[in-house]
Amino acid sequence: MLYRVEIENFYSIRDRQVIDLRARASADDDGRLAPVWPGAQERAPKVVALYGANASGKSNVLKALSFVRWFLDSSFSAPRGQPLPFQRFNDPECLQAPMRIAIHAGGPEDITRGGDPDAPYCGYAYEVVIGGSDSVSVMRESLHYRPARARRQIRLFERQADGTVRADKAFGLGGYRQALEKVLRPDASAVATLVQLDHPYAAAIAGLVARVNGNIFLERVDETDAGTERFYVENPVFVEAFNKEVQRIDLGVRALEVHAGPQGPIALFRHRGLAMPMPLLFQSHGTRQFLKLYPLLFAALDRGGIAVMDELDAAIHPMVLPELVRWFYDPDRNPHDAQLWMSCHSASLLEDLSKEEVFFCEKDERGRTEVYGLADIAGLGRRDNFYRKYLGGAFGAVPQIG
Description:
There is one protein chain. The protein is of the alpha+beta class. About 25% of the residues lie in helices and about 25% in strands. Strands 2-1-6-7-8-9-10 form a seven-stranded antiparallel β-sheet, with helices on one face. A hairpin with a 6-residue loop joins strand 13 and strand 14. The two termini are about 40 Å apart. About 40% of the residues are buried.
């Protein structure tokens, strides 16, 4: 589970912003909180909702998570020498300064035993810092952890600007060091590079990182309808799962059918009261969007991980949105304590969220994003009407009209 994120000089986030999800010991649980790792005393929410005006920086927080996933997974495969898929804050000082992202999450002490339910867990901290005036050079990349036997954090590996990588024995770099020195590029992650060398620890990290998925695309555009149809044709397990849900959340649709037609994949929807199934083209925007988003939610709930959803409420009815959120509270649906990180404009959802789950993004007059949590606002009780107070401007992070 992800429980702390630090972002600096990344798009509209100029100064270091810290999102610390760890809840106070007195916080009500009600199925919304889970240990930051199995056996830990500290807890964090399974749902994180980001609110704010348009262009306040909500999507940029989610982009930071997506960038780390891309960097650890795909940076070695990217074309050499091209700018990395992010922008720094647009002022003269920051354009010459490094970008930094750090994430803290729970994981198995021996990460190569990630599939072992009896393996002890602990906290991990990953950091990446990418160059000053050179936007394609890694200045620092590191991974630390603190197993139960340790009195302090242990450096698993640390990579410097010159490409030097130092590693703890547990990381197992010894037999791979010479090969790594030959192929490590200044614009690629050491982890992504070691995966190409079949390094066991790096491969285990990549396996965990692959569980972070969402609708933030750093290098490509959103899936077309044809791409969505092709996905369901190639993954029939999602058709069965989708059909279990669609009748409950869309009163018109009875079932989805997918076929490999002569011109490519075809998705057909059977509607209550209609004689013939209807193609995807004739479905509502909301149904088409849900069809795209559902596999991301299902995968997180099924395997554990993080669903990163930008504007989940954009095409989802406000009465359906709380139902999607409740999936993450349900221990039967979410046995692995998967997380949902989403940006949102639906103020009515605040009536269904707790203080620990809500964060706000607000820009100042210079375009700098500040991120702060509802739980950090003094004098706010759990029974207060968050919806009414937010729309009344009590928390900030609302559009200024006129």
